[in-house]
Amino acid sequence: MRLICLWVTLACSASFVRGAAFVPVAGNLRQVSVGFDGTVWGLNAGGQIFRWEASTNTWDWIPGTLTQVAVGSSAAIWGINEEGVIYRWNSSANGWDWIPGTLTQIAVGCDGDVWGLNAGGQIYHFDTQAQNWDQIPGHLAQIAVGFDGAVWGLDTAHGIWRFNPISKVFEAVPGVLTSIAVGADGDVWGLNSGSIYHFNRVIQNWESVPGSLTQLAVGSGANVWGLDAAGDIFQFSSSSQSWVVTPGALARIAAGRNGTVWGIDGSGEIYESTQTPEPLETFHQMAGALAQIAAAPDGNAWGLDGFGDIFTFNPLTQEWTAITGNLAHIAVGLHGDVWGVNSGGQIFHFDIATQSWDWIAGELAQIAVSANGDVWGLNSANQIYRFNALTQSWTWIPGGLVQISVGADGDVWGLNANNQLYRFDGEVQQWIVIPESSFSAVAAGSASNVWVFNSFNDIYSFNPTALTWNPISSRSLNVSTIYPAFDGAAWAVDVDGIPYRFDSQAQAFSYEYAFLDARGFNSGGVTSLAVSSDAVVWGVNAYSGIVYQYW
Fold first, then answer.
1. pLDDT tens digits for range 39-97
2. Which CATH architecture has domain 24-273?
3. SS3 514
4. Phi/psi at 443 (nearest 5 deg)?
């Protein structure tokens, strides 16, 4: 307590901003869980289940008993009982569905992605299509989930692991932590016996944050809270980059993406923050002015302004940080793998170690980067090249394309000047033409999420099992671009700059016209989107420079 209070006092002496207050809420709980949208569930000392009803300011009793409840959102509530039996809340039936398997720990992302650990530390991921658990190699003692592209864990020796959604394995990350927390935007924090650390996406490493805490709650990079050993409450201030003390004392704390914060004191008394939640399912106007954005499956986002200056998004400050260099086009892969092309066609790769750009021999007009590390490009003569990481040079691939699209898993598609569609066959290392195809554009999120459309406004999604194209109801949508992600999400933008989100149940694109500026007013449309997962969606208006983030 003494260390963090001294640091906060010194750091905030010039401009101290007090955090939001906490007000008591009727009831008594031993555990509270907050979803990204502010949905709140809790358990009392007897394991009885309660759901907060904001409209009536009361707790609804839910039948059953649990030892742990995990809330991703109002549509994703899971729990386990003392025998490790797994349950999923079914809002339609107003009851619990039993899910086969046993777990000792469960975690749910903001997009409903569900993970768990059993008594032996074995790792399981719930497959929503098969409706069962897939065992993932490895063993963990803790697991934390922001969304399907941001899953982290700690082993019994406090080693840190990060899930690679493309290779489907956990990869070691340097460092040692005793606890870890992941926000709905993929922002990651950790503690090591009280010492505080934040994962910097640009340097791809941990940065020490002054202070001492025993517990963290991360709703997002803009909503980070902590408790010290005495139960004192602190909120991380993005403006001062320091911990701001908030009156009160808590034993447990939980935070949501929209700014919601709840806590429980040592007696089980419940408290809610007076901090005003932000609206959901909306394009929020963000700081900065950009013309282009690229985003990775883990939430890392980079952008260019109208002059080619380079920026990366800092989730703590909620602002774009300038990176030295100048580019005409930028592409982002997993774990900080960033490539770009300047106005002269010169190629550059960002070096995380030196925080500078390495010039790569060659010349390209288009560049595409997958999350598995593959890099492809087209030059001004429509020739195709693939980067060889071993030789650090480009390999010419026979053929000619005017557009190339690379999925997160390395699946590659392209269109030639005659609008013929091609798919690259990795086994034979050549392009396979799609018979009788004539399309205006192709977009690949992964091998199982490929989209095309033609000049007649016909939209199709690829069925990788049947190797056929499924027509999608466009509702007279005059689409200009489609943006698919590795996890099956897909968005479209029409010629008027209005974005649409694909509804997999309805098999149609739904209207998503809601752009709010800092004052909450509608502020216009977009010229392009950057969609890397269902939880990472950015928009930009290249004419006005206005930047949006959707949640």
1. 999 999 999 999 999 999 999 999 999 999 999 999 999 999 999 999 999 999 999 99
2. 7 Propeller (2.130)
3. coil
4. -140, 125
Average pLDDT across the chain, whole number: 93
Correct CATH for 283-550 of 3.40.50.300, 2.40.128.710, 2.130.10.10, 3.30.70.2580: 2.130.10.10
CB 115 within 8 A of CB 126: yes
Task: State the pTM of this model.
Answer: 0.93
Instruction: Retrieve residue 338's tokens.
Output: 């960033």
Other C-beta atoms within 10 Å of 475: how many?
A: 10
Which residues, 6+ apart, have CB-to-CB distance to 334 below 8 Å? 164, 165, 166, 296, 297, 298, 371, 372, 373, 408
Check: CB of residue 282 under 8 Å from CB of residue 268.
no
Written in H, E and C, the secondary structure of 276-339 is CCCCCCCEEEECCCCCEEEECCCCCEEEECCCCEEEEEECCCCEEEEEEEECCEEEECHHHCEE
Contacts of 381 (CB under 8 A, 6+ apart): 400
327, 342, 324: which is closest to 293 by C-alpha? Answer: 327
Residue 477 near residue 494 (C-beta atoms within 8 A): yes
Residue 10: enclosing H or E segment and its boundaries? helix 2-11
Would you say residue 8 has pLDDT above 50? Answer: no
pLDDT at 14 (0 to 100): 28
